[in-house]
Design goal:
mainly beta; 4 strands; elongated
């Protein structure tokens, strides 16, 4: 299991022919937690599912300023991600 956090602030870029426009976002704390399993149905096959939860917390000033979310096209402040992989030993 792994966790992480950090504080980031995005800035707006000047639009131009070679520079895309970047939306301005409020400074916030970003967190994540990940859990996974190793399942071995045989000695040569390993299946590894995982789930990850990401969320962002902002102070009340940024939340009241109408700043959009960090995930789901700026509609949410949290998200779940599911993944799976497997490998075959030979």
């Amino acid at each position: 299991m792994a966790t992480g956090s950090g504080r980031f602030a995005a800035t707006a870029a000047t639009p131009g022919p070679s520079r895309p426009t970047i939306s301005r976002a409020a400074a916030a704390n970003y967190y994540e937690i990940t859990a996974g399993l190793n399942y071995k149905p045989t000695n040569c096959i390993t299946i590894r599912p995982e789930v990850r939860y990401d969320w962002r917390s902002m102070d009340d000033t940024a939340a009241n300023a109408g700043v959009g979310g960090a995930f789901d096209n700026r509609a949410a402040n949290e998200q779940f991600t599911f993944g799976i992989d497997f490998y075959l030993k030979f």
